[in-house]
Amino acid sequence: MIHSRLNRIEAHIEQRIQDRKLAGAVSLVALNGRIVHCKAQGLADVETGKLLERDAIFRLASMTKPIIGVAVMMLVEEGKIKLSDPLGKFIPEFTHMKVGVPNSAASATPYHSDPNAPAGLITDFLSEYTLSSTDRGIIVHDLLTHSCGLGQGPIGFREMLMPGLEDTLAIHIPKWAKVPLDFQPGSQTGYSPIAAFDILGRVIEIASGMPLDQYLHQFLFQPLGMKDTTFVPSDKQWQRVVTMYEGTDQGLVKFKEQKIFFHPHYFSGAAGLFGTLDDYCRFAQMLANGGELGGYRILSEMSVHIMGTAQLADTIVGFPHGQAWGLSMRVVTDRAAAGTSLSKGSFGWSGAWGTHFWVDPKENLVALLMINLANAGGADAETAREFEWAVMRSLN
Fold it and tell me: What's the whole-model pTM score?
């Protein structure tokens, strides 16, 4: 019965493809560790008519962030990182940060799920501000909960520079220590689309003594069998990377920047990974299993529980009602207040270009959606909400 009810997922996606709002999509639902729905629909490339296959490679965008969160927690379990560690312990340049105080009334940029414009492309910012001292330094917990204050408002977006072609994390990240914070660390939240998790990528390198790509490959991707998840696709893998489109009033238009956020040396922990539906399913199922998959334990059950539990006070400014940040992922705390069909306690995240996943501990469910739409909109995308509704209605 559940299989027939899950057909509504396919019907919703097919309608969007027919309406030329979507080129293609892959979707997957697993219950109790068993895949009960998996479907590839539409096209990987409209111009050539190439069909979208299950092994297509997508730009994970901000679905990179939960992977970075898991890597940090792995090093926490090894005693190489503490959530309370000051950022300056790993990168001394961040020891003495300043907060930018606008000369006119303003606050941190309100939360937007995975905004399309990365830091440096936002032009609606203040031109004048003064500097004041921080009450305390940024800690690792602040970075994981989008409450560090760096690159989270008009001042940070104005001052942050994006990495150059020859930059690495080691070269570029210390430069951001000169950028004023948009608020006192830990005092507000919102969304740090780039800075926080790129910085965490560098923290992982320092704590582990390995380049970020090598650490993830050796200790996470290889043990989980995530063979196509990478910052730098091979020539053969590029042949399976989907073409990205923008939705317009006239239908789909090929996106001009097909290699957006691809960098051969700078491994963005915020948005740099590529991967497949099946690869990310293995990652998400590991979380659903409490940190283990196929007899290989990545994290303890306690660490996964912490990641999927609200970490900030309900009263903190900067996040919508009914949901909160866990560690690197959004957590549903009140489904009615959040206006969501997801169960209380569900956790996961999304990417700006159409990737979306969540884990539902109550239903022992994992669900994933990947589309190739550059202006999809992240966690608040229509496609994401529609997919959530179709999945959750199918359970009842």
Answer: 0.94
